[in-house]
Amino acid sequence: MQPPDAVAGWDDDQNAELYARFTRDYPFYARTSRDLAARASLPEAQLVVDLCGGTGITAAIMLETLPPGARIVSIDAAKAMQAAGRRVHPDPRISWIVARAEDTALHIREPADAVVCNSAIWKTNTPAVFAAVKQALRPGGRFVFNIGGSFAGLPPAHSEPRSGPSLNELIIAVAAAEYGYPPTPHPRPPAPLTADIVRAQLGAAGFSVLDTETVTHIGTLQEKRAWLSIPVFARPPGQFTYEQRMEILERAYAQSDVSQPVTTAWLVVTAEA
Ligand SMILES: C[S@@+](CC[C@H](N)C(=O)[O-])C[C@H]1O[C@@H](n2cnc3c(N)ncnc32)[C@H](O)[C@@H]1O
Fold first, then answer.
1. Residue 12 has what pLDDT?
2. Does the CB atom of residue 78 touch ligand 1 within 6 A?
3. How many CB atoms lie within 10 A of CB 8?
4. DSSP strand E in the chain: where?
5. Is the beta carbon of 77 within 6 A of some atom in ligand 1?
6. CA angle, 11 then 17 then 169, to 5°
7. pLDDT for res 71
8. Top-level CATH class of 13-160+191-220+261-272?
9. Does ligand 1 come within 6 angstroms of the Cβ of 133?
């Protein structure tokens, strides 16, 4: 089953522009992309697929490692994300295809050396995507992706005990005190995509799993505030306008301890076709 936020919200020009700006101004997605690139055996690769490639930060990072003459195909279901990506990364070595990750095999005609997917795989129908990626890769080619900790069922990552409430907790508190939140019941979150489930699904698609590792990245509260300003990530859910969410965010941020680091956990998976 496809999680409800799969593409909804992504095919929107304002969202794409703010997302692209975030990837330029803050290291969050560049850092996770660099981690994937390091695991994908890129120095020998000639054709790499960036799955759910968004506005192209992962493709841009991979170009730093790829040999001259190598090409990247960026596949994403949201036209607006790709349009912003073409503007921000106008590199002729990247080609852009608006398509669902589940349909990858229909679009990649020569065997790819590697497929990477940064911060998106849990939004897709993973058994279908894994089967399609297996078809697209050459034998021995790498498939590397990460899963956000909460979507992988990992415990919350804190580098040290927090001295006060998190920014997310403050957002809820401000929304409750000043905006009558919660206006609607929360939908139940999708079941986590754990390491065991991923291993089983990759095995069923014909992959050998080389590694599943939990990594943490440490960022700043300022970066988290900028991330929560991207419309698709803005909180809280429910019947708020974007402007209301930004007011709530600013009030919550003003009450935060900005010296607190923000630690994000990821499950990183490396598989071989
Ligand atoms: C958090 S963004 C990640 C973008 C990029 N990988 C990065 O690191 O910046 C998630 C992306 O996944 C895309 N997406 C979600 N479900 C998809 C699907 N089933 N097929 C293709 N793209 C999908 C969205 O359109 C969005 O651009």
1. 97
2. yes
3. 11
4. 47-51, 71-76, 94-98, 112-117, 137-148, 208-219, 262-272
5. yes
6. 85
7. 98
8. alpha beta
9. no
Q: Give the pLDDT score at 161.
A: 65
Domain ranges of the chain: 13-160+191-220+261-272
Residue 26 CA, ligand 1 centroid: distance in Å? 18
Strands 94-98 and 71-76: parallel
pLDDT along the chain (273 residues), means of 10: 56 98 98 98 96 98 96 98 98 98 97 98 98 98 98 82 85 94 73 97 98 97 98 92 97 95 96 98
Nearest CA to ligand 1 atom 19: 124
Q: Give CA–CA dist 97/51, Å, rounded.
A: 10
pLDDT at 254: 98
Closest-lying ligand 1 atom to the alpha carbon of residue 129: 19
CA distances from 256 to 170, 180, 182 (A): 8, 21, 21
Q: How far is the CA of 144 from the centre of ligand 1 (A)?
A: 15
Ligand 1 near 6 CB (within 6 A): yes
Amino acid at site 74: S
